[in-house]
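Moderator note: this is an archived Q&A kept for reference. The question asked for a predicted structure of one protein chain; the sequence and the answer are reproduced below.
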Amino acid sequence: MLYSTGRLIMVGDHVTVDGMTGIVVCDFDNRAFLTGYDGWDMPDVEMIGGGTLSSGIMVDTTDAGLIHYEEGNVHILFVSGRELQPPGANRRSED
């Protein structure tokens, strides 16, 4: 998933989203997860209310907690991050 600037959204990025600050903790497209969020790797499990977590990102915000975004959004603004995947990210491959 990309920011509106074309930059790749990565696990560990600090962002402002819908006016709230947060950190990207899950990248469901690439199955990458910040340490402690590995349990969200369940692409085939239907969530309450329908849908699965097989695409998009999860942002842990300071004001609203976890928010799932399925598509890049002009409301997701990059604040800081690393060029490479952070050491705390766990990448899982399809079994």
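Archived answer notes: Residues 26 and 40 are 8 Å apart (CA to CA).
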